[in-house]
Amino acid sequence: MNKTSRIMLIFGILLVIMGIVLWIFAGAFPALLGYAACVLMLAYGIGEIVFYVRQSNRQSAFGWALGDGILTIIFAVLLLFFPGWQILGVTILFATWVLFSGVTRVSGALASRCSCACQWFVIFIVNIAIAVAGILLMLDPLWGILVTGHLAAIAFIVQGICAFTVFCACRRGE
After folding, report:
1. What is the pTM of this model?
2. CA–CA distance, 62 with 60 (Å, rounded to integer)
3. Alpha-carbon separation of residue 47 from 50, 70, 102, 131, 141 (angstroms)
4. Most buried among 82, 88, 92, 123, by the most CB within 10 A?
């Protein structure tokens, strides 16, 4: 078993486990992810300001870091006080990821059909459905808030299965 196949197996298992956990706690997913993003944004904003303070005596070209740090902190604080915005934002970002992931995996499935990978058609159909789900989430983000947790769970499980499929294909190629 080579490194690539082992990595894909590990990612596949972790993605499926994450999908199961997300399914169990689906209702809390958007809010928890939104708060985690706010904390990261605050830390990033503070880091930008610290970077500016440490670099400002060397060059004046780092004013963007100060401005970005201040704006990031303001935005993070606003999101903390208006959690509905963060949940909507997480839903839109998730929808974008789902759409992009589905489209790229459809392309991968089409490319793998030439190499006689027998799973290509299943991966193709499943990821068309994932891309359509991403589009639907973008068209109606409020509906997406209600279903994002479960769709995230399904997406993680499907991605895990796709990673396991790659693991199996790599093993056959050895």
Report:
1. 0.56
2. 5
3. 5, 10, 34, 36, 32
4. 123
